[in-house]
Write a structure and sequence with these properties.
single chain; alpha/beta; binds adenosine-5'-diphosphate; Rossmann fold; 19% strand
C-alpha cells in the first residue's frame, strides 16, 4: 500500500489544499493530512484542535484520507506514518525556492528515506492561500470562492464568539 503525507498549517484549509488532496488521493492508496502547529501563532485564526476537527469533518466519508496532528519535523511524521513521500503544493514561482529548499533539507535530514513530491493545483485554485482567505474574511468579504462551505461556517461561528 502506498501512503503519502501532506503536511501543512491549513489555517484554514482552502480549495487549493483540497484540490491537492484530491490529486494526491488519485496517485496514492492513502493520504495522511498532517495538521501542524502554526509557525507564528499570533497570526493564526483557528487553534490546532479546531483545524484538525474541521479537516476530519470534511473528509469523514473518505476512507483513504486520514487526518492527524503533528509537531516537530514533517519527516519524522512521515516515518511515523510509514510514508516514503511528502506532498507539497506549488502556487507558482514564489513558492518554488522555499519548497525546493524544504525538499532538499527533508531528504537530507531523513537520510534519504523521505522524498518530496510537488503538485500544482488546478488553474482556478492556483493563487488561493490561507493568509489571503484570512485577510479577505477580516475585511468582511465573501470567502465562498476560496473555501468549502463548512470552513466558511466555522469561521463565521468563531468570529461571532470573539
Ligand atoms: P505551510 O505553513 O506548511 O506552508 P500551508 O497550509 O500554508 O502550510 O500549506 C501547505 C502546503 O499546501 C504547502 O506546500 C503549500 O505550498 C500548499 N498550498 C497551499 N495553497 C495552495 C494552492 N492554492 N495551490 C497549491 N498548493 C497550495
Amino acid at each position: 500500500m502506498t501512503k503519502v503525507l501532506y503536511p501543512g498549517s491549513f489555517d484554514p484549509i482552502t480549495k487549493g489544499h483540497m484540490n491537492i488532496v484530491e490529486q494526491a488521493s488519485e496517485l496514492f492508496d492513502e493520504v495522511v493530512i498532517a495538521v501542524l502547529q502554526n509557525k507564528s501563532k499570533s497570526l493564526g485564526f483557528f487553534t490546532l484542535e479546531e483545524r484538525l476537527e474541521i479537516i476530519k469533518e470534511l473528509y469523514k466519508d473518505h476512507e483513504n484520507i486520514k487526518v492527524v496532528q503533528g509537531s516537530g519535523a514533517a519527516v519524522d511524521l512521515a516515518l511515523l506514518y510509514e510514508c516514503k513521500n511528502i506532498i507539497r503544493g506549488l502556487r507558482g514561482i514564489t513558492d518554488y525556492d522555499q519548497e525546493v529548499q524544504l525538499a532538499m533539507t527533508n531528504r537530507e535530514i531523513s537520510d534519504n528515506k523521505v522524498n518530496t513530491i510537488l503538485l500544482f493545483a488546478d488553474k482556478e485554485y492556483q493563487f488561493i492561500s490561507s493568509s489571503m482567505v484570512r485577510e479577505v474574511f477580516g475585511l468582511e468579504k465573501d470567502i465562498s470562492r476560496y473555501v468549502d462551505p463548512l470552513v466558511k461556517e466555522k469561521m463565521l461561528m468563531k468570529r461571532m464568539k470573539n
